[in-house]
Amino acid sequence: MSEIADIDRILYPKVEPHTTGMLVVSDLHTIFWERSGNIAGQSVVVIHGGPGGGSQPAYRQYFDPKKFDIIQFDQRGCGKSTPYAELQENNTQNSVADIEALREHLDIDSWHVFGGSWGSTLSLIYAQNYPTRAKSLTLRGIFMCRKSELHWFYQHGASNVFPDAFEPYQNHIPESEQGDLIAAYYTRLTSDDATIRRAAAKEWTRWEMATSRLFPDPEYLDKAEDLDFAVAFARIECHYFINGIFVEDGHILRNCHKIQHIPTTIIQGRYDMVCPTVSAWELHRQMPKSSLVIVPDAGHSMGEVSIARELVIATDAL
Ligand code: STX
User: Fold this and answer.
1) If pLDDT is split at 50, 70 and 90, which confidence band does 2 have?
2) pTM (2 decimals)?
3) CB 272 less than 6 A from any atom of ligand 1
4) Is the CB of 208 under 6 A from ligand 1?
C-alpha cells in the first residue's frame, strides 16, 4: 500500500471552502482567507509553515468538517495574499496582528489554534500575545526559531545526516561566503536580478523539501521546481531568519507562563531533521500540562502517515 493511499484513509475527505475573502491589513498587504466545514461548529484557525509556505487544501482534511468551522489564510506575501513575496512590513508582530484582525473580521470570540513548524512558532507567539483567544493549541514539529535551531538546519547539523542534499545547497554559495549560509542566501534572494533570486530560491527550497520526511517523497521535492512557490517561500523564510524572527532569542520559552491554562498537544516526529525533537521537549518542560506525543517513525512533515494519524486523533479530541 502506498503512503498516499494510507494517508487518504486517515484524513477527512476533501472539502471546498464555502466562503473566501481578502482582508486588507495595511496600506501594502492584503491577506487571503478561506472558511470551510460547519460554520456553526467549533472554530479552528490553521497556521501554515515556512514562513512563506502558504496554506494548502489538504490542511483542512485534518478536521471533521461536520464538527469544525475551519479557517485558513495565507500569511503576508505568500499563497494568494498580496503583494507576492513582499518583505516590507512582513514580520512576526504583523503576522500575529493579522491573525487577530482576521478573528475580529470573522466575528469569532475565540478559536482553536493549529500549526506546525513555523506554524507552531507563530501559534505560540499569537497565544502568548492573546492568551484569552486561543481555546487550545495543537502543535506539530516544534520550531522556536532560536539561533541554535537555525544554525542546526541552515549551517551545520542536519548537514551531517543529509550530506548529499546539503552539498548542492552549500555549493550554490561561493566558498568565501559559506561561513554564513543564511546571510549569503539573503543577498541572493533579495538581488535585483530575478535569475539570481530564482536560482537561490530553488536550492534553498530543495534543501528543506529533501529533509522534511523520514522517507523523502519525490512529489514533495518537486515543490522546489515550482518557482512561484519557491521564491515566496525562500525569500520570506530567509528574511524572517536573518532577522531572528524579530524577537529576542528564547522569547517563546520565556513567555510560556502566559499560556499555561491553554490545553496544548505537541506532536513531534522523532526523526525530524528540520526541527529536532529537543525543541518539543523543551517546550513541553516549560508547559508541564501539555501532552507530548513523540511519533517514533516520522520526520518533520504533517503529510507523513503516522504524524497525520496523531494530528487527527488530537483534533477529534478537541
Ligand atoms: N521551515 C519550517 C517550516 O515551517 C524552516 C516548513 N517547512 N516546510 C514547510 O514549512 C512547508 C510545508 C510549508 C513547505
Assistant:
1) low
2) 0.97
3) no
4) yes
